[in-house]
Request: fold
Amino acid sequence: MKRLWTPAWIARHVAMVALVVGFLGLGWWQVTRAAEGNALSFGYAIEWPVFAAFVVFVWWREVRHALRRPPGTDAPPAPSATADAAPAAGSPGVRRPVRVARVGVAGPEDGELAEYNRYLSWLNANPGARPGDYPG
Reply:
């Protein structure tokens, strides 16, 4: 429980209480406006307590997450000095996929594809030409 009394956690606790009190106060204000005849305020009177409940949910989830971690591991691990170093033993190795360009892929030539590529080459060689000017 001492982990939840650091300056960062105290700021989180204070922010949570301030937000919940503020959201519930705004919800009550919308209830009084709705009672005065403002029909739109009924929707807001429901919305503000939902916001307050969401703040409590996120705060509770973060508290539980902090208590599950072993003591002294509040900060994420620092990145290693070299990017290509192998992962440490016992840690899962996550690697990025390597993209390899296929050069010279041999295969049957598609007649329509070859004609279309000739057409594109002609358009590239004649930038001012219209597609209807293609001689092929």
Notes: Residues 7-35 form the longest helix (29 residues).
